[in-house]
Design a protein that fits this description.
Structural class: alpha+beta
Low-confidence stretches: none
Helix content: 40-55%
Mean pLDDT: 93
Largest sheet: 4 strands, mixed
Distance between the termini: 35 Å
Number of helices: 14
Number of strands: 6
Radius of gyration: 23 Å
Number of domains: 2
Shape: elongated
Strand content: 5-15%
Order of helices and strands: HEHEHEEEHHHEHHHHHHHH
């Protein structure tokens, strides 16, 4: 059973009865679920995930202090800490702190402030562009088991995905950086014999191509260690995985550089095809910067469109 399912079962078995019996006055104003930085929140946990920070647990999201005061929150945290130590063969980490842990009692406002910088998920265009994407993923992943007031659900809806103009700005920036890293910097570094720096350019290209893929798929890019894993869930882009892995894991001898160029052309061709399918460009070449300018031109808000084309790159 996956960690998210274990979390929900632990809540239903122990958490829900605890709330009903000890805190009936709080029923109707709480949200409960699991979201955030753990692999189980992304649905990517496996047998290797259980060596650290993996436990039967959940988050109790509290409304503002004027609704649930600090004394009530403290009592709730104490009750949460006394729930059974073991469930389905997993042991709990009992070292949790109010408002600071990944599990336990957390103010809704503090959770979202820690992820996206705003307690209600109201982001300006500048905040959308500058917030690390994996934090947006963490704010919206996992599952909410109950939400009596609907506060958590409403905020997660606001953050569900980038506004379209922001998606396009970030896409244009990622395309520009990918082109610069591959067809420009990689080739120049090879001509200088600087193979280590050339490989760094390839790494930058792959990093930005992954950004392009997630933006075209309209999914938040998770923390870097899960990005290749996530390609398995995107049928249109899964075929690129072999080429991207090959770019990262091969060297830069003359023969290997020829192969890398072939892989880059293949990846760029696939990206270009999907960009055209989404109606973002009529360009039929392989240079990603040409796609970038077309994509930027599709942005409706002039304030966003006229920002530097690289302003969406992270």
């Amino acid at each position: 059973m996956k960690g998210l399912e274990i979390s929900e079962q632990y809540y239903l078995t122990y958490g829900a009865p605890m709330l009903h019996e000890l805190f009936p006055e709080l029923e109707g104003i709480l949200a409960v679920g699991l979201a955030g930085s753990g692999s189980e929140c992304m649905g990517y946990d496996d047998e290797f995930s259980r060596d650290h920070d993996f436990e039967p647990s959940f988050i109790l999201f509290l409304p503002p202090e004027e609704v649930v005061d600090r004394q009530a929150a403290f009592k709730l945290e104490r009750a949460y800490s006394k729930l059974p130590d073991e469930f389905m063969g997993l042991k709990r980490n009992k070292d949790v702190s109010f408002d600071n842990g990944r599990h336990g009692v957390i103010r809704t406002a503090d959770f979202f402030r820690s992820k996206v910088g705003d307690p209600e998920g109201e982001l300006t265009p500048e905040q959308w562009l500058s917030t690390p994407e994996h934090y947006l993923a963490e704010a919206t992943n996992g599952k909410i088991f109950r939400d009596d007031l609907g506060l958590v659900t409403d905020i997660r809806k606001k953050l569900a995905y980038f506004p379209e103009d922001i998606r396009l700005k970030k896409l244009a920036g990622a395309l520009m950086v990918a082109e610069q890293a591959s067809n420009y910097n990689y080739e120049r570094l090879l001509s200088r014999g600087d193979t280590a720096a050339a490989q760094l350019a390839i790494c930058e290209y792959v990093k930005e191509v992954l950004s392009v893929i997630f933006l075209l798929e309209r999914k938040y890019k998770p923390f870097y260690k899960w990005q290749f894993r996530a390609l398995n869930d995107m049928p249109a882009f899964a075929p690129l995985k072999e080429d991207l892995e090959g770019l990262l894991t091969t060297g830069n001898t003359h023969g290997e550089a020829i192969e890398k160029r072939s892989r880059i052309r293949s990846v760029n061709g696939t990206l270009g095809e999907i960009i055209r399918e989404q109606g973002l460009s009529d360009y039929d070449g392989l240079h990603l910067d040409s796609f970038a300018y077309c994509v930027n031109g599709k942005i409706k808000d002039p304030g966003v469109r006229n920002l530097h084309i690289m302003s969406g790159a992270q």
